[in-house]
Amino acid sequence: MREEISIADAYRRGRTVFMGVELLVAPGALVPRPETELLGTTAVDLLRRMDLPAPRVVDMCCGAGNLACAIARRVSGARVWASDLTDGCVEVARCNVAHLGLADRVSVFQGDTFGALSGLRLEGSIDVIVCNPPGQRRRSTVPTVSYTTSWDTTLFQGSKA
Ligand SMILES: C[S@@+](CC[C@H](N)C(=O)[O-])C[C@H]1O[C@@H](n2cnc3c(N)ncnc32)[C@H](O)[C@@H]1O
Q1: Span 64-91, pLDDT tens digits
Q2: Strand order through the sheet with 128-131
Q3: Which of 8, 44, 89, 122 suits a disulfide with 84, CB 3.0-4.6 Å?
């Protein structure tokens, strides 16, 4: 009940806070859930441990762009490619990128999973992929973060078990 109220409240105010970052929300995209911060903070910790000057990150199924934007804010120098299937999510994510002044480091694309990024020549160049996929409640194969050097890397590491 409390969660329903806070989600309704976020939509009413048009804003929420995710990993300490103020984000715009609109009905076309889900309000980021507090538990998704665990995925974001895990990715940030991993990226900091990698200690790369300009780590390259993909946020697949980006929704409101919360993970992409929060990671870019927390990891200076990170370059993030985000994508989502729907018009509403892509629009909200792009609004958040502009709202947070991250347009030079976060790009938002639209399409079906990695098809959205085809043609960008990112293959073999990405350090970390984050993904909070749709329908994750149906099975317990929830991924956290994947290292990758090619698109052949299984995105959902949990499904290997
Ligand atoms: C659980 S939400 C995650 C949103 C956001 N990343 C977060 O963590 O709050 C899943 C997202 O996947 C997107 N989605 C669903 N099917 C997709 C597909 N085939 N390709 C890309 N994105 C998809 C939905 O539009 C939705 O925004």
Answers
A1: 999 999 999 999 999 999 999 999 999 9
A2: 106-110, 79-84, 56-60, 128-131, 145-147
A3: 89
Of the candidates 147, 139, 156, 141, which has an alpha carbon nearest to the alpha carbon of residue 55? 147
Mean pLDDT of the chain: 87
Residue-wise pLDDT tens digits, 115-160: 999 999 999 999 999 999 998 555 545 445 555 444 444 333 333 3
Choice from 41, 83, 85 to test ligand 1 binding pocket (greatest atom count within 8 A of CB): 85
| Alpha-helical runs (H) found in 77-145 | 87-99
The Å distance, Cα 25 to ligand 1 centre, comes to 15
Which of 126, 122, 118, 79 lies closest to 102, judged by CA?
79
Dihedral, CA atoms, 35, 40, 43, 47, nearest 10 degrees?
-150
Q: How far apart are CA 123 and CA 128, in angstroms?
A: 12
In terms of C-beta density within 10 A (0-12 exposed, 13-18 middle, 19 or more buried), how is residue 21 classed?
A: buried
Apex CA 79: angle with CA 76 and CA 81, to 5°? Answer: 140
Which domains are assigned to the chain?
2-160 (3.40.50.150)
